[in-house]
Amino acid sequence: MARKPMIAGNWKMYKTAEEGAELAQGLGERIRLHWDDVDVVICPPFTALKSVSAAIGSGGPNIGLAAQNVHWEEKGAFTGEVSVPMLADLGCSWCIVGHSERRGMFGETDESVARKVRALLAAGIDPILCVGESLETRDSGATDSFVRGQVRAALEGIPADDAARVVIAYEPIWAIGTGLTPDAEAANDVCRAIRAMIGTLFGQSVAIQVRILYGGSAKPENLGQFMAEPNVDGALVGGAALDAASFSAMVETASLYL
Ligand code: PGA
Q: N or C terminus: which one in the chain shows less Cβ crowding within 10 Å?
């Protein structure tokens, strides 16, 4: 079964509401030809979700809207947090969970990641689950077991139907924002290990459906080599997603691997 390519843009803490709407609009026009053959998702900061949602809203470009984080409780005294129903209300159909910047700088743990995944799935929002190793872990030869452990901790115990909706972004921490990337073959090896873990947890039919993205200094110049690998189904893009020309070039590349 062919998996539909996905290109997701993680805007991190960039773009005001107005700048975000402008970028989304420019993007929509540029990728018009590929609305149907690539799942294009953009992940603005919370404060730009509403304006971006309006810019890509009904009748507009076929671009999915994602948040970058969420809290697992529906509501309550959680200062500074945003809930799943709040994201659904703004038209989000995806949400990044467990990005390494959140794990490393904001105390995200495997336990909180697992709670967020469950809350999102229950509300019909599909998680983009980030996993990936540090340079230290890579140098010690433990990458596969570390990443497999992150996948197991986040997903074990959820129904197989729900697991098939999860997108996994394999992002080596040392490649994020550094301009460094692993060999495409090495990235594919880790993605293959992730897929095998999904197979162990949920069976082969789920394993062949789940999309696995590469992330970490992905850009128009290197995307093709990752997309050519059998276990890589797209990319989670940071820096190169902030510019309509470079992001749309990546969508175009991905469309060649349908
Ligand atoms: P980068 O970020 O493309 O700027 O390396 C990727 C990410 O953090 O998702």
A: N
